[in-house]
Structure formats: C-alpha cells, structure tokens
Write a structure and sequence with these properties.
binds phosphoribosyl ATP, alpha/beta, binds zinc ion, D-Maltodextrin-Binding Protein, domain 2, Alpha-Beta Plaits, 6-stranded mixed beta sheet, 3 domains, single chain, cytoplasm
Length: 283
C-alpha cells in the first residue's frame, strides 16, 4: 500500500483529487477522514495542510505527496521532485508600491520586506548580495506596505490582480512554481512498483490534457491539401466513406495550435470537423 499526502482543502485540493480520479483511482464517497484507502488500487490518501506535506514525506509518514514547489523549496526538506504536475502554477515575486520608480534590485537594500516565505527570500537576497530586513507574516502579506508594516512584499502571484488592487507592482520574479509529486528514494520494492504505475497513469492523463482528437470529411481531390496542413503529426488516419469521392481524416492536435490549424483545414477543403477531448494517451 502506497500512502500519498494531498492538500485537505485549498487551491490544490480539487485538481489533486481530479488527477487521482482521472488516473482511475476511486476513493469512497461520504464522510471523509484523515486517511482514506482507495477502493480499487493499493493506495491510501492522507489529507494534510499543504505546509505539512514536505515534512510528512521526508519523515516517511507519507510515501509521496502532491504540493506546490514553493512549499518544497521553503521547507528545505530532503525530498525529491518526481514529477511536475502542470497545475497550481504561480510565481514567487518581489513587489513594491506602484508609485515608486524601481531602479533595480539594489533598491531592496536596507528595506523591510514582508513575506510568508522567509527561506526562499533570504536565499535570494543572499545570492544577490542584498541586505534587507525580512518580516514574516502568515496571511494577507499584500496589505503590509499599505499599512506601513513593510516597504515591499515577497509573495505568490498568479494573475497579478491582488497586487493591482493593493497598488503594488511586481518587480522581480524569483521562483516559478506548480504542483509537483514529491518522494524520497527509500521506498520498498512493492511501494516503488505501485509508484511507477501511478506515475505512468499520471503521464497518460497529462499527455492527453493538451491534446484534441479531430475527425473531418475531405473530398478526395483536396486530400493532399488537407494532409499538408497537418505536418509533423504522425500519420493521420485516412478512411473511405460510403461516397467514394470523400474520405474521413482522423488525427490528434495540440490544443495550443487548435484555432490556427482548424481555420487552415477549413480553407483547404475539410468539412464536418468534429473535435473530441482525449481522456488518456498512452505514449
Ligand atoms: O490550508 P492550507 O495551509 O493547506 O492552504 P494554504 O492557504 O496555505 O494554501 P492555498 O490553498 O492558498 O495554496 C496552495 C498552493 O497553491 C500554494 O502553495 C501555491 O503552490 C498554489 N497557488 C497557485 C497559489 C496561487 N496560485 C495563488 N494565487 N497560492 C496562493 N495564491 C494567492 C497568493 O497568496 C495571493 O494572495 O493568491 C493571491 C494572488 O493571486 P493573484 O491571482 O491575484 O495574483
Ligand atoms: Zn498552507
């Protein structure tokens, strides 16, 4: 049985649960307890505050965990990142009041910086030879400059709207973060096998995430033009239709290039284009 720690509530909870579900791991519904065994896979889920996840993995209370990279770096626990999971993306940045003309990093010398991430911040200041005063606060860091508790903040930024509404501007991006799967290299053979299967399933879910399956009808006379729009995509499937003048083309597209390619396919003569989500893709 492999024990995985995930956030019990908060920003990473929904997507951590969705990832487990998409990986085919079924958890019992109903009242949730701290430790929940899956119904169909040798795994149990330990629900914790995100702050406690790195330490729980380092100490062996959990075998692996899903947590923001920012927490892993801050806690400095001896755990490794086994896999980046692509959700919970954010960055840790320095921000200062909007009306200050920012001359560069040296501005921070002698300043007071409010943060909940003193470890990452002190490393950064040290690396850059900046002496500043770190003021640790655990919530609502962004209000500190407004109430003159600090000159600047070092905090998580995602869309940037929290900074704007507190009349702050981001001046240095220090760390990029996303949810990661963490673990140690001291698992038993049995647990390692379960973990390998889990990672394989996560990878299949992730591979499908930014892909679409598309089908379209193409007149035989336009087939070459349509196939020319799909370069780099491994052998699209071409199938005959009841009307011999037409065929059906199936392929997988990167979501990022979706609109660009769809418009070119239409221009090249494709019709009746159907786009489907892909649930999993085994590479
Ligand atoms: O209760 P528990 O201790 O488990 O949770 P928590 O309150 O400490 O953390 P939670 O649930 O807020 O965040 C969990 C993780 O989500 C973080 O450690 C990050 O890895 C990740 N994450 C991603 C974020 C954000 N995006 C985010 N935007 N964590 C926090 N924020 C906050 C940020 O602190 C700031 O106040 O959102 C605000 C900024 O957002 P924007 O969009 O206005 O820039
Ligand atoms: Zn927390």
């Amino acid at each position: 049985m492999l024990r995985i720690a995930i956030q019990s509530k908060g920003r990473l909870y929904d997507e951590s649960m969705a990832l487990l579900e998409e990986a085919g791991i079924k958890l019992p519904g109903g009242k949730r307890t701290l430790l929940v065994p899956a119904r169909n896979f040798p795994i149990e889920v330990l629900f914790l505050r995100d702050d406690d996840i790195p330490e729980s993995v380092a100490s062996g209370v959990a075998d692996v965990g899903i947590v923001g990279l920012n927490e892993v770096l801050e806690k400095r626990c001896p755990v490794g990142v086994l896999k980046k999971l692509g959700f919970g993306r954010c960055r840790l940045s320095l921000a200062i009041p909007q009306d200050i003309d920012y001359p560069g990093r040296d501005w921070f010398t002698g300043k007071k910086i409010a943060t909940s991430y003193p470890g990452i911040l002190s490393d950064y200041l040290h690396r850059n030879g900046i002496e500043a005063d770190i003021h640790v606060i655990t919530g609502s860091v962004e209000i500190a400059p407004g109430i003159r508790l600090a000159d600047a903040i070092f905090d998580i930024v995602s869309s940037g709207s929290t900074l704007v509404s507190n009349r702050l501007k981001e001046v240095e991006q220090v760390v990029e973060s996303e949810a990661v799967l963490i673990g140690t290299d001291s698992l038993s053979g049995e647990k390692q096998e379960i973990l390998d299967e889990l990672i394989f399933r996560f990878e299949s879910v992730q591979a499908a995430d930014d892909k679409k399956y598309i089908l379209m009808n193409v007149p035989q006379t336009k087939l070459d033009d349509v196939l020319a729009v799909l370069p780099g995509i491994k052998s699209p499937t071409v199938m005959p239709l009841a009307d011999p003048a037409w065929c059906s083309v199936h392929t997988v597209l990167d979501e990022k290039r979706f609109w660009e390619i769809i418009n070119r396919l239409k221009a090249a003569g494709a019709e009746g284009i159907v786009v489907l989500d892909i649930e999993k893709m085994i590479l």
